[in-house]
Design goal:
The chain is α/β, with parallel strands linked by helices. The chain has 29 helices and 23 strands.
Amino acid sequence: MKDLLKIDYFDLASRSLDEIKDWFDVRENGHSSESAAQVREKYGDNEIDYGTEKPLWQIIVDAYFTPFTLVLFALAAVSFLTDFILVPVEEQEVFGPIIIVVLVLLSGTMTLIQTLRSNQSVEELESMVEVTSAIKRDGEYSEIRTEDIVIGDWVRLKAGDMIPADIRLIETKDLFISQTSLTGESYPVEKRAKTEIREVTNETAYETLAFTGTEVVSGSATGIVVRTGNNTLFGDIADELAHEEPKTSFDIGIENTSLLLIRFMVVMALIVILVNGLTKGDWLQALIFGVSIAVGLTPEMLPMIVTTNLVKGANDMAKEGTIVRNLHGIQNFGAIDVLVTDKTGTLTQDNIILQSHLNTDGLESERVLRHAYLNSNYQTGLGNLMDEAIVRAGEKELDTDSFSYTKVDEIPFDFERRRLSVVVEDETGKTQMITKGAIEEMLEVSSYVDYDGGTHELTDAGRDFVRNKVADLNKKGLRVLGVAQKTNPPPVDEFSVKDESDMVLIGYLAFLDPPKESTAEAIKALKAHSVDVKVMTGDNELVTKSVAEQVGLPTDRIISGDQILNKTEDELKVIVEEHDLFVKLNPTQKSKLVGILRGNGHVVGFLGDGINDSPALRASDVGISVDNAVDIAKESADIILLEKDLMILEQGILSGRKIFGNTMKYIKATTSSNFGNVFSVLLASLFLPFLPMLPIQLLFLGLIYEISSMSIPWDHMDPEYLYTPKKWEAASIQKFMVWFGPTSSIFDVTTFLISFFFIAPSVAGGSYGSLGAEQQALFIAVFQSSWFIISLWTQTLVLYALRTPKIPFLESNASFIMTTITSIGILIGSVAPYTRLGDLLGLTALPMSAWWMLIFTVIAYLILVQIVKNIYVKKHGELL
């Protein structure tokens, strides 16, 4: 038997239909379920491996070996060397290295769990959005998942379909395919089932073949699947170009911040080592302390916090009816400040009703409905709601069972002509070409008009009369199509666009698609959250204006596609800012305007569901489509809405902003707190005759804080924070660190002074210099315990202070989960000095005076932070 995967594309394109059927065991009734399963077993699923799905071992390695954990591993090795290898036997201890390893394992394990959950969530969410194709199985065509398509399947294609596999075309009708994904060319190419084939250097030039990943722009076809999955031409390219998903600005910001923090940690640790070595004379102890400072400065939970935020956010958005196809694109979703949408189904109910079928006199006409019904019923191209409405009305008002027509041919719809023609023949042999489409495009091909009981030549005055009639209907919010016919068109082998001429305009179809009740409220909500809504539609000005007025969009700033045809790039940059409604646009114009909005500095979301929307979906920062969209639109989108409703979209945007906000809470609070602690340690090291805190105490403090920080993804954001789009700005982290780090240092210094001159002497029985060795040890333990407790409380409570510009606990409360976990952390750390664990850590019980100092310091610290917050927000505009 011939090896099907070794047949070259020239043979696939040029061999006869009988040979193709023989090679691929093609049956006229298509595969049976059993034979399809056998072929699938042999050649695999019809899926492309893009090289982005990581094996489990790589996911594990990535989780445990981040830049932060690599630093911690190195620090654990140094700590083991200094705490165990280089010290006398009686002083050996491994508690420090163990805590560092626990931090690594905790961070890595949580990151691994969240990554696996992330992958599972993406798979579950993707499974909710199916792309199907019309496949013939057991003698009938039905919609089948593209993954289940096998070699030898019969496929039926229409406008709006993604090509699901490499296909040998058997029958075509005005088939134009966009091969942009393979060739980069923006113009569609015509494919023909019957044509002379010569060998070419580029496989995409074969006219009898359609390739995976390309798109049907117009026309229809039937074909046989000859290659699937990675064996397709698209699969070959995917193998060569296998790469990870491109990084979003958020990913790049996280990476840059991580490297910044690591550099900061290295520099500060070296400074701490030098200061303590020079002032204390014990370089080994200084090295141990420096290592502990480095561990404390390492935000090892950052990868876990980010992943948890994304997974939780995607699942929350799914509950609201928003399916995220790319988790790392969520932040861009929250950054949207301009939402561009089409009109149909977004602003309106997408439940189109044929309101009237009128002759050119403006009277109800059964003849017009009959012609429209024949056109819609027999067309096989791009299905739409208007055709469905016409067919429903025809079946209700006409005796369609008595119709006896045979379809001769059709000229499919495309977005340049904006019309569709069907040729039918009745039982007497009379043929008719019936065309329907947008009014201006119908006037282009009509030379006559049925009016006042007769057929007349269509003059300029007659065209104006038609336009005025249609305008009256448009002003009522009705969308209008024209219907024309031509009796006994000259017979040809195959009708084409040039045959659409000398038509007789017979009437109009007026459709009602009322605005959604929720649209006006959703637009207000989006506006309140700093998202401008712009409409880009192929509909005309009057209809769009009518709908816009009903939903509260301004209608004074409207422009049409004709008006922008010859505008320069600079002129368009101004036009996109000054206008809200863009009408009679073609797909290329939509895409170009979206690109210009992005060039102007906006983060643009585009909501669309049609084949004409796919270029704009790709051009936007966030492509948004709906579950019932055409395949091209769904494949081009980052976000899928289960309902085409702006209210759902608004909730999704807010979820994106919440995810961003919770990530920034951890980064800003942690970096500023760490910066302040190191600044305090440097000051203390210059003046204290001993270490302000033991390395093991610093490590344990960091462990409690990082565990407490794991609750941040479950916190909520103030409503005011969600009012504006959020973009990553690394400079804001540095500013935040410089402002709030020294603020905490002020109270660290007061803690040092009170502990050194009052609390520790009261317990040890005198000033440090006047005590013996044993009492000095007690003095140091009391001092270090005081600072441990104060640092624990202030470092944890600063999460509450810096999570909101409001007054914490009074004007803004954290979530129950965050409150519970951080409270447990504070409780464990506060009780530790009174337990066996405290003995191991070198901590000791504190007198009541220390707790009074704690209360005073915490209250004063929160008050100062609130004052600094107010100044910071006034100066920089926002906190997080």
